[in-house]
Write a structure and sequence with these properties.
mainly alpha; two-stranded antiparallel ribbon
Length: 144
């Protein structure tokens, strides 16, 4: 019904604010996804799904609101070469990130890393590791 009833041409109020705000939100989503993945946050998968969705929406509206052959070609190239591949990566992360950590866990542990509270803990130096693994000397006192 909307295809038939919406006007073919419409001048939008606050066009620049709408697009600028959307692009700002997309930038924050990209940065948030990167930070959450780097920190091994349990919310990284959700953030990646949100970011992928915003990238697909951006590609869709960039192409469909472009005017003239050269603008359409530029928007389509940006969509096909940047936005949609990045969205696919985000969707892959959203569905595979938790599994990827589990697959990588034995390799990370073999390299000395540990995973605590969903965060990657780098290996410590040999002296720190030895101190951590050596039981504390008994002072003869017992805690009550």
């Amino acid at each position: 019904m909307l295809f038939a009833t919406l006007p073919r041409h419409y001048v939008a109020n606050h066009w620049g604010i709408a697009w600028g705000g959307f692009d700002l939100g997309l930038g924050l989503a990209l940065a948030g996804t990167a930070v959450m993945v780097a920190r091994r946050s349990p919310f990284a998968e959700v953030m990646a799904a949100v970011t992928g969705t915003l990238l697909v929406c951006d590609a869709w509206f960039d192409v469909l609101t472009s005017r003239g052959a050269s603008d359409i070609a530029q928007a389509a190239a940006l969509a096909l070469l940047v936005e949609l591949p990045l969205a696919a990566l985000c969707f892959w992360m959203a569905s595979n990130l938790a599994h990827a950590v589990e697959v990588a866990r034995p390799f990370l542990q073999a390299a000395g890393f540990t995973i605590a509270d969903n965060k990657l803990v780098p290996p410590t130096s040999e002296s720190e590791r030895g101190e951590r693994l050596t039981p504390a000397k008994s002072t003869g006192h017992r805690n009550a």
